[in-house]
Input
Amino acid sequence: MVLEKPYTVFLVDDVPVVREALRWLIEDEADLRVIGEAGDGLEAVHRAAELRPEVVILDVELPGLDGYEVARRLKGLLPPPIIVFLTVHSDAPARQRAFEAGADGFAEKGRGWLTLIDQIHLALTSRAE
Output
């Protein structure tokens, strides 16, 4: 079977080592390719508008703009990217705010990286249907 081109992914987290770990994890997936990253909310909005990724992995706590506002702005792009929040905030209000802001998936930091990959694939499958 021939693999179609990989989905493009943009990483947004204010901690460089987290972005590095995410890049390593995602690039281990044959169907995903990291095309850029940002360390703050304003940079994320500008770079994502420029690069037009298909998937954005987004932290909540960011300098500049928080992840919720970044998600709302990115959902205004055409076509809008799939947004998967990756955060330490796992309580119900944080999840609700994420989905109200336009999240397509939600994964908790520290719960295992495979949960994030599962959330990405689930969101991609849902979008394709």
Q: What stands out?
A: The chain has one domain: 7-111.
